[in-house]
Amino acid sequence: MPAPYTKLQSSNGSVTTAGTAVQVNPVSTPCAELSLTANEGNAGEICYGGSNVKAAVSGRIGTPLVQGQTVVLKIDDLSKVYLDAVTSGDGFSYSWLS
Hints:
0% of the residues lie in helices and 39% in strands. The chain is mainly β.
């Protein structure tokens, strides 16, 4: 049985350019669970998914989050989750168990 995860950490980020996916964390960061929230002040939706995520309504790939919405993902590494935004500069916050 793996050792229990005992540390809760938090950070934030943003999508500088709409249409260009960013990793939640570009550095490989082992985790057990990720809580991801779209910022309250965002102008539009952000989408999460794999490296091919696309937030634009036309041809959208991934799952959208509206302002203030949170999703919890069971995943083993933060660098596997990507985000894109409809509006450049929209942001997100996240917490993870490690």
